[in-house]
Structures are given as C-alpha cells and as structure tokens.
C-alpha cells in the first residue's frame, strides 16, 4: 500500500473518531450501519463491533457503555492454519431489549443476551444470559435477578429530573455524599 493511501486511511480514521466523539449518545450507533438494531440504542462512548458488525443484532432501549467489545469470531483458529488453511469460526451475537452493558465488557461469539439484562463492567460474557438477570465477572456469572437489582437501586437511589444536572444537582449530591472529618 502506498504512503499516500496509508496516510489517507489514517486521516479518515481520525476524522471519523472525532465525529463519533462529537455525536450524541443516541446517534453514535449511526456510525455502525452494518449493525442490526432496534430503537433508542445508546452508546455512551467508543464501542467495538469487531470485524463482522453485520453479525451483531441489538434490540431496543439499550445502553452500551464505553469500551464494550463484541467479538464475532474465534481468532484462535489461526494456530491451526497450517493443517486447515481456510479454517474460520464465526458466530452471531444477539442482544435483547432493555439491556445495559457496562464499561469494557466483552461479549464473545455466539452469545445471546435476553431482555431486561444488566451486564457488569469488565465482564467477559461467554454463554447465553436469560432475560431478567444481572451478570458480572470473568467469566460472567449470574449475580441476581433484575427485580432484586431494582429493589436495591430504589433503596439507595435518589429521584432527580433526567437531564437537569446543574448547580442544584451538584449541591444535592454534595450534601448527600460529602464525607466530613
């Protein structure tokens, strides 16, 4: 590849990264036209849909945090290329609706995630997650039901109007969570 083409490709990647960083959380998914998706898919940062984004299917009302990776192939098959020159292993990933995927989670090939699921930050999801469950860890495992998770959130959460995060919000959080000596 010529130096001109390499520079042009590098510049295009930087421009796209800049555009992506300026896009709203609900429009970032538009940078991944090959991903099959429903409505209101929120990307809170850079998400990696891998080399086969067309094998990723997302439901509606999702939040996918920064650093999440969807792996749709098993790159380990390369160690057998001398014996099996054309061996490739691919599998689709399907994510249901009303799902939250935490920062830096990795979703492995062939995984299906049900509806109303929370996946904890840093988790490596290697098997299917049924609907209505919270999973976390490496490898990810069942933690609790989303009903139990909701009850815990209602006990420790605060009610505040969405999108109104100004001085009043800061004062409220400061009054609630400031540690005094």
Please name the CATH architecture.
3 Solenoid
Basic shape: globular
Supply the number of structural domains. 1
Numbering strands along the chain, what is their spatial order in the largest sheet?
2-4-7-10-12-13
Would you state the CATH class? Mainly Beta
Q: Oligomeric form of this entry?
A: single chain
Which segments are poorly predicted (pLDDT under 50) over 5 or more consecutive residues? Answer: none
Number of strands: 13
Q: Could you please say which CATH topology applies here?
A: UDP N-Acetylglucosamine Acyltransferase, domain 1
The helix count comes to 3
Distance between the termini: 62 Å
Strand content: 15-25%
How would you classify the helix and strand content by structural class?
A: alpha/beta
At the fourth level of CATH, the homologous superfamily is: Hexapeptide repeat proteins
Report the helical percentage: 10-25%
Write down the secondary-structure element order.
HEEEEEEEEEEEEEHH
Give a structural overview.
By secondary structure, this protein is an alpha/beta fold. The chain has a single domain, classed as 3 Solenoid (UDP N-Acetylglucosamine Acyltransferase, domain 1). The protein is 23% helix and 20% strand. The strands form 3 sheets. The chain has a 6-stranded mixed beta sheet. A hairpin with a 4-residue loop joins strand 12 and strand 13. The longest helix has 20 residues. The protein is globular, with a radius of gyration of 20 Å.
